[in-house]
């Protein structure tokens, strides 16, 4: 679980060029991290790739914070 | 009811460039006057199987001072170069020191063209293609031709006319000419205008080489671009950007801006002949120069220097020389000409941007940067070529030509202020 959290934060830090320690589970992509709609799409894409997931569009829209992403991955990622 | 539109004077008050001969205007100008070549063996990819292995590559460019790290990967390299050149032009014009009002920003536009756009991005994305779910949302915005204008407008808050022209190697000349007209006829007060291109990749080099357009003098890169020389064998690709700040004359004067030159005339024409071969006797070139002279409302004899398109292709140089002879008649013998492509290579859509800057510096300083590598001037290029060493100029008007594939031509006339 800690692994998922670490990996997600690393991905977002890379995509948004932010230091990892500025990102926490409660960070909102748009409101807290300054992402735009395209950044958000790219973050989801990078997460899909890193965790071998296919997140349906209807589910993508619900992932707004780092915590949302972690929760989704923990629920759906193949062991 | 007939509406009469008063035509306003347009001047250049800022300039910036990124090119194989320099990362600023002063560095470039000094290298060009010294006759230094920026051409070398391509080191960006394996050129083993390529007929042409040389190009004018931009060296030592760092986008960090101009573009936020997070934004860099969302832009093709041609946009990096455009923003680098824009950064210099903006500060050169003094706009880094003033706070423009909303009304001023609404009449300040951007017109940065590109001959090809983000070909490197297309190449990379297609090579790494992993299906529709893995295509980056930044793919399209990072490569489209008008995005240099878009990004510059966002960076500087310029809300006036925003456009981009894509007329191959005439792009830079057209962008500056079109933008100057927007100011002349009152649609804008100020414009950031020019061109940017960077296609030194497998597709770009391979594509132009297949057309037999490129020099294959691979063992002597610095001597490969040799306009007007009998042994020229094609152009050498360059890359970079050339951008100027255009301003309505009275406004520039009122704010005490340093004025480099006036955009006195602008012409456009089409060859209507062939996709890549210029029309016989350079007729398209003749028409575009005549159009610019007419637009400037001067006598042809007043033009003292032509910064020629002069790409170093066997046919192109010959026909452009012929066109100049036809347009200027006896005066053609007295006109000084040169092609700085001999040093920086052919910057494609950025050529007209950079070479307008060169022409402006020439009329401003009275110095003509040379055409290097003219060992044996082609008798079919029988003009007063400033060859190998810089020359002097004493003239109020200079001309800059840009001709592109598709038979599109642009010509600017610049006046000393």
Automatic annotation (TrEMBL), chain A:
SUPFAM superfamilies, per database record: ACP-like
InterPro entries listed in its UniProt record: ACP (IPR003231), ACP-like_sf (IPR036736), PP-bd_ACP (IPR009081), Ppantetheine_attach_site (IPR006162)
Modified residues (O-(pantetheine 4'-phosphoryl)serine): 37
Protein location: Cytoplasm
This protein's UniProt keywords: Cytoplasm, Fatty acid biosynthesis, Fatty acid metabolism, Lipid biosynthesis, Lipid metabolism, Phosphopantetheine, Phosphoprotein
Domain Carrier: 2-77
Principal location: cytoplasm
Record GO cellular component, one term: cytoplasm
Post-translational modification: 4'-phosphopantetheine is transferred from CoA to a specific serine of apo-ACP by acpS.
A single GO molecular function term of this UniProt record: acyl carrier activity
Pfam families: PP-binding
Pathway noted in the entry: Lipid metabolism; fatty acid biosynthesis
PROSITE patterns xrefs: CARRIER (PS50075), PHOSPHOPANTETHEINE (PS00012)
PANTHER family, A to Z: ACYL CARRIER PROTEIN, CARRIER DOMAIN-CONTAINING PROTEIN
Similarity field: Belongs to the acyl carrier protein (ACP) family.
Function of the protein: Carrier of the growing fatty acid chain in fatty acid biosynthesis.
Protein's recorded name: Acyl carrier protein
Source organism per UniProt: Candidatus Geothrix skivensis
């Amino acid at each position: 679980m800690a692994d998922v959290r670490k990996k997600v934060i690393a991905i977002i830090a890379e995509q948004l060029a932010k230091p990892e320690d500025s990102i926490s589970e409660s960070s909102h992509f748009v409101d807290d991290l300054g992402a735009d709609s395209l950044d958000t799409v790219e973050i989801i894409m990078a997460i899909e790739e890193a965790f071998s997931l296919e997140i349906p569009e209807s589910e993508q829209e619900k992932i707004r914070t780092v915590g949302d992403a972690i929760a989704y991955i923990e629920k759906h990622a193949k062991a | 009811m007939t509406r009469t539109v008063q035509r306003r004077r347009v001047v250049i008050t800022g300039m910036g460039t990124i090119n194989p001969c320099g990362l600023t205007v002063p560095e470039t100008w000094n290298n060009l006057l010294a006759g230094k070549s920026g051409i070398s063996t391509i080191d960006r990819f394996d050129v083993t199987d390529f007929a042409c292995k040389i190009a004018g590559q931009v060296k030592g460019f760092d986008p960090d001072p101009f573009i936020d790290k997070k934004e860099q990967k969302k832009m093709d390299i041609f946009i990096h170069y455009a923003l680098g050149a824009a950064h210099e032009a903006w500060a050169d014009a003094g706009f880094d020191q003033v706070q423009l009002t909303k009304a001023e920003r609404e009449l300040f536009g951007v017109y940065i063209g590109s001959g090809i756009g983000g070909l490197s991005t297309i190449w990379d994305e297609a090579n790494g293609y992993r299906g529709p779910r893995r295509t980056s949302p930044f793919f399209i915005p990072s490569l489209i031709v008008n995005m240099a204008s878009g990004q510059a407008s966002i960076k500087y808050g310029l809300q006036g006319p925003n456009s981009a022209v894509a007329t191959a190697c005439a792009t830079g000349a057209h962008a500056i000419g079109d933008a100057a007209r927007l100011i002349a006829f009152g649609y804008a007060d100020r414009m950031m205008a020019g061109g940017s291109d960077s296609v030194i990749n497998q597709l770009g080099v391979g594509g132009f080489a297949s057309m037999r357009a490129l020099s294959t003098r691979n063992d002597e890169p610095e001597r490969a671009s040799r306009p007007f020389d009998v042994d020229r064998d094609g152009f050498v690709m360059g890359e970079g950007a050339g951008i100027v700040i255009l301003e309505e004359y009275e406004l520039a004067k009122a704010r005490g801006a340093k004025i480099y030159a006036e955009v006195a005339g602008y012409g456009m024409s089409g060859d209507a002949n062939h996709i890549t071969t210029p029309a016989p006797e350079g007729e398209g070139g003749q028409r575009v120069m005549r159009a610019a002279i007419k637009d400037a409302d001067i006598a042809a004899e007043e033009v003292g220097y032509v910064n020629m398109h002069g790409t170093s292709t066997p046919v192109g140089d010959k026909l452009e020389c012929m066109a100049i002879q036809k347009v200027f008649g006896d005066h053609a013998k007295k006109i000084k000409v040169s092609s700085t492509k001999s040093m920086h290579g052919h910057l494609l859509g950025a050529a007209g941007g950079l070479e307008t800057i060169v022409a402006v510096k020439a009329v401003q300083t009275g110095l003509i940067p040379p055409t290097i590598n003219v060992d044996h001037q082609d008798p079919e290029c029988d003009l007063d070529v400033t060859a190998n060493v810089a020359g002097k100029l004493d003239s109020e008007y200079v001309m800059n030509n840009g001709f592109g594939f598709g038979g599109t031509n642009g010509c600017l006339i610049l006046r000393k202020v």
